[in-house]
Specification:
Distance between the termini: 40 Å
Number of helices: 0
Order of helices and strands: EEEEEEEEEEE
Radius of gyration: 13 Å
Strand content: over 45%
């Protein structure tokens, strides 16, 4: 059974930082492309950042230079370091594992507000 479990969300002031983690079980983690997506109220889910099995990364224009995705294959975990957070970053953040099939975590809420 595949499980992706996100953690690290919460409430942070504008300009602050958060680090999200996603621990995966039930897959050969190292061969999967891992991604972080987010969905704000009333909006479609969008790709935030992605890292391939070879650690090539891709970012949404809106987070380029502020967010960093990384992976630790020994721990079956992918991270999203979020700096200089803005109110528009408020959303539920979802972890995704992609190879032939897509797997999703349950999501973690990130709220950026003063």
């Amino acid at each position: 059974q595949v499980r992706l479990v996100e953690s690290g969300g919460g409430l942070v002031q504008p300009g602050g930082s958060l680090r999200l983690s996603c621990a995966a079980t039930g897959i050969i983690f190292s061969v999967y492309t891992m991604g972080w997506y987010r969905q704000a109220p009333g909006k479609q889910r969008e790709l935030v950042a992605q890292i391939t099995s070879r650690s090539m990364t891709k970012y949404a224009d809106s987070v380029q230079g502020r967010f960093t995705i990384s992976r630790d294959n020994a721990k079956n975990t992918v991270y999203l370091q979020m700096n200089s957070l803005k109110p528009e970053d408020t959303a539920v953040y979802y972890c995704n594992a992609n190879r032939v099939a897509d797997y999703w975590g349950q999501g973690t809420q990130v709220t950026v507000s003063s």
